[in-house]
């Protein structure tokens, strides 16, 4: 399965999936819990977690909704769903699936839809948002946590500098691999899909990486291999080495790297 005109799903690997499971505990999971708070998820609610990865956040939500609630986690990456399945329970289910096609889900069957660190991977945003509106009951909520457009971190800029140099520059990364939106674009997308905007908050976020190698590994795992997937396989080891060298120039004396940036949490309510 491929995301239409978007990132490759074939670049993921069992190793990257395991790395993501380990790394995301202190990164995506932390931002996801903030999203859950913004959505005010309550006991008994039915929640659809789009792009659930290895299921950490879905498992957290399942505890909140309790025995009378239900959580369904969907992700297009089978290896990550394979890890998530170990978390499944009476009120928690995982399926391989795409945000672009939720036809197997009945209309108005969920109270909440959430997307944590996922929205920028959807090149077409209007189609998925229409699907989310369809599966939400009137008055149901949607929550999206993502990095806003125009907020590239210094570590991302360092990686981009390396990939813009020869021999890597001969193989440019497709422009549609990631697609961020700003606050005003998010508002317009919500309104067009039939959501009333409840809140859009932008806050400062920081991540710590133990080393340049760890920072690169995070980027590879969280992009399910798409950071370097555009390069010929023979060039990727050299690209990794060059990126690590560049990132090391930004490191503290102990080798650690701090990555500062901003995140956006947008919450909408489905109109009747």
Secondary structure layout:
Elements: H1 14-23, H2 28-39, E1 46-50, H3 56-65, E2 70-75, H4 78-84, E3 92-96, E4 110-116, H5 126-135, E5 136-146, H6 154-163, H7 183-193, E6 195-209, H8 212-222, H9 236-248, E7 257-270
Parallel strand pairs: 1-2, 1-4, 2-3, 4-5
Antiparallel strand pairs: 5-7, 6-7
Task: Outline the structure in words.
With 272 residues, the chain is an alpha/beta fold. The protein has a domain of 177 residues: 3-Layer(aba) Sandwich (Rossmann fold), CATH 3.40.50. It is built from 9 helices and 7 strands. The chain has a 7-stranded mixed beta sheet with strand order 3-2-1-4-5-7-6, sandwiched between helices. It starts with 13 loop residues before the first helix and ends with a strand. The model has no long low-confidence stretch (mean pLDDT 95).
Span between termini: 33 Å
Strand order of the largest sheet: 3-2-1-4-5-7-6
Class from secondary-structure proportions = alpha/beta
Give the full name of the CATH homologous superfamily of the domain at 14-149 and 179-208 and 260-270: Vaccinia Virus protein VP39
Structure annotation, total helices: 9
Compute the number of strand runs: 7
Coarse morphology: globular
Largest sheet: 7 strands, mixed
* Mean pLDDT score: 95
CATH fold topology of the domain at 14-149 and 179-208 and 260-270: Rossmann fold
Using the coordinates above, name the CATH class of the domain at 14-149 and 179-208 and 260-270. Alpha Beta
Low-confidence stretches: none
Order of helices and strands: HHEHEHEEHEHHEHHE
Residue share in helix: 25-40%
- Give the amount of beta strand, in percent: 15-25%
